[in-house]
Amino acid sequence: MAASPSSEVPEQPEQPEQPGQPEPETPETAETPEAPAPEPAPLLTLRDGLGEVVDTKTGLDELCEAIAAGSGPVAIDAERASGYRYSNRAYLIQLRREGSGTHLLDPIAFDGLAPLQEAIGDAEWILHAATQDLPCLRAEGLRPTELFDTELAGRLLGYPRVGLATLVETLIGRRMKKEHSAVDWSTRPLPRPWLEYAALDVEVLVELRDLIADELVATGKDEWARQEFEALRSFEAPVRVDAWRRTSGLHKVRGRRALGAVKAMWELRDEIAEQRDVTPGRIVPDSALTAAATAAVLPTDRTALMAVKGFHGRGADRYSSRFAAVLREVAELPESELPTRTPRTDGPPPPRAWADRDPVAARRLVIAREAMSGLAEEHGMPLENLLTPDHLRRVLWAPPATREPEALAAEVAEALESLGARPWQVGLVGPVIVDAVLRGDEEPPAEPEAEPDDTAGAGPQDG
């Protein structure tokens, strides 16, 4: 097909070759050099080598003497056997202190660690993600008088990722291997590579703490962090109400009797798991419970239960008679004694139901959420660290009756404090809640009525 005149390109006269000049590269042939990949950060290594695990009274006495002779805060970490054991106890405790070095302690070998508590005294503890370790350390008789949580501090500072390895690489420039993070720490003896991994978790906690503490001061958040750390000292793991409702796949279960079947089997499995000190999923998985509960006919004998496709696991055959027995009990229960889909709670309904249940409360929530998002962005931290979302919902769903601004502010502050909010949170979020309550009471402006369409339904216009 011939080109149109406007698309023709006139011939260019040939240019004489220039001796010694390279031929120019066209955009298609020019090569753009690739930027070299950044060098990975050097691996974090143990400065003092790896000592023996302390599991004798003599060893504990020497460890306590070393810790007491050290100076400054004490870096502490604990390893549990999550995913393997029912209990949440510590199977290894790591400690490091300036002038003392790193120590690995086997708490299983002792009835309690009161001598270590005395050796630490009132020194500050440094932990990463303290809520994970405080309960199991408390079970061994260890309680901090003062602590610093590097993970929580990282959240207050707005770091997008606050895992220990990420913070160490970001702030200290060392890379941590995490290949042993999910091993069974109840194993005895513990392999040396696992012990090295565990020791590295406290290797630079003191240095990390100092860098983060300086940043907290520079950003004016050091007092916020101090209040958060003080509240952590009395942290208790929350008691899980109706924990069976967290069964994976429960949303597929229909009907109160099927829910009752899941509940009964979950409770039996939990009892067996506690007796054997193994994680419940190793008896039978969640999928086995929901498969039995949703069978066409509730399997109330061992043969029928074992015939259910999906009822499997290490304990399926061994405990099938006991599971069938609790299913027989569920089959005979009156409807009124079976669980409902939605549990009764003392808290507000889910936010999605607010508009129907209480439109005014729904307006409060919309106003508060928008302001909270701006506040979180202004202070560079996650929204949930400004205030626990449940606390915000509780106060907005049932706010104080007064609408006199000063009295309302005082009562909102009192309500937040009673829920466990820290003073810095009350100071920041209290005014947001007061504003949301006052503005939420106002009637929203009426939407303008649509102008009538004069041509609607009209026939053809005369010419």
Automatic annotation (TrEMBL):
> Which ranges are annotated Acidic residues under compositional bias?
443-454
Q: Which GO terms describe its molecular function?
A: 3'-5' exonuclease activity; nucleic acid binding; nucleotide binding; ribonuclease D activity
| UniProt enzyme class | hydrolase
The source's domain of life comes to: Bacteria
Q: Does the keyword Cell membrane apply?
A: no
Task: Kindly indicate whether the keyword tRNA-binding belongs to this entry.
Answer: no
Keyword terms: Hydrolase
State where composition is biased (Low complexity).
1-18
Where would I find the HRDC domain in this sequence?
Answer: 255-337
Recorded hits in Pfam families, A to Z, give: DNA_pol_A_exo1 (PF01612), DNA_pol_A_exoN (PF18305), HRDC (PF00570)
Q: GO biological process: what's one of them?
A: nucleobase-containing compound metabolic process
Which EC number applies?
3.1.13.5
The annotated region (Disordered) lies at 1-44, 334-356, 438-463
Protein name (database record): Ribonuclease D
